[in-house]
């Protein structure tokens, strides 16, 4: 499960942003706060609906705070670099497709230099990018990082919504000796300053697909990113990680601030993300998480569907001596992922740890489809003081439910879960602190875990068709722990988590 380091040429990108910021913007002649861009326009026009500008960049260099830039349908083969901010008093600068038309920002034939976005926001506040199709920004060069939307520096109140981002690719050929330098992103947010952060960030309702990412991610928040929501996005059919919250990579200049934190990852659907055909990884690797926290902290991952990835959800740390901490993973449906459903801890003894995290009220169904024996919950190196409660774990054909092959794990609480395996209780398998247990009674007595847990068919409505709601006769109903501090207020459907005094096990209330 070893992952490759990401190659980030932050210095190049910051230098480019500063150069653009020194350009003097032209005077704006349009009346009011609405401006227009059209493929048939001219940058010598006034920017009105009847006399639109031609290029996105001209608009970005011209408009004041509070402006709405409506982009008419058509293909714009240009890069857009935004260095001007809106304001709290006058409002954001908004770039949006006009009405029901689709403005397409197309990178065909454009070169990527360093870490560069087809749309790029550098050190800005109060900017919205909405309703664009962003596509075809590609490179064959190692150490160039093409990105659909790239936000970096510091700033806040940035909204990236309802965009369709696809075919952003790095197709450089890695060698067996050096697999690094083949990287791309769909949306990348890098907090590269300190103490000033990127904050009040919204990434909502976007679709990202057919991205060739190398050793990188479709959506990544890295470094000094403090306060964000990643919600209702559709992320699928990419060759690496879906969503990643990263810390400890040296993105921020001060280690105190170098962690994505205080965020919410909610109601996303993440599927078909895998490194199986990615030449940046060795054959047989299954390390692409649908949702991954690598060194992030103090965030909530809830009400997501994650399936047919390599790993459903992973909360881990790739950096020795550093911890992913205070992450809550709750009310998610996680199924049919290749390696495991949920993974936690460092993937070997040279990595970091997972500390003070909560894994509660998830439905984790028939992952481990690769038949590796990693089970539904993979507990790796150095997990400490985590809570694993109220989850439904249904094994795949391997019959493995939990696999914990490490002895360096302390203070973890595992209880009030419901387990089931295709071959029944007599073949159900748990490994805890590198000792294997077959049968539920043997596992409970040998580990001290799961005193209040059950082994029983959870009776889903129709799991084969992806319907994990509970039948009225399900043993999961009203069998969970009512620990209101960690279970949250809503189930997978947004319905109340607590009805009366009882709580179900699993994602469905």
From TrEMBL:
InterPro entries: Beta_helix (IPR039448), Choice_anch_Q_dom (IPR059226), PbH1 (IPR006626), Pectin_lyas_fold (IPR012334), Pectin_lyase_fold/virulence (IPR011050), Polysaccharide_Lyase_9 (IPR052052). Residues 488-509 are annotated as: Disordered. Its main location: secreted. Coiled coil: none annotated. SMART domains: PbH1. The keyword Cytoplasm does not apply. It comes from the Bacteria. It is found in: Secreted. Residues 186-363 form the Right handed beta helix domain. Residues 1-19 form the signal peptide. Keywords: Secreted, Signal. It holds the Pfam family Beta_helix. NCBIfam families: choice_anch_Q. This is DUF5123 domain-containing protein. It comes from Paenibacillus ottowii.
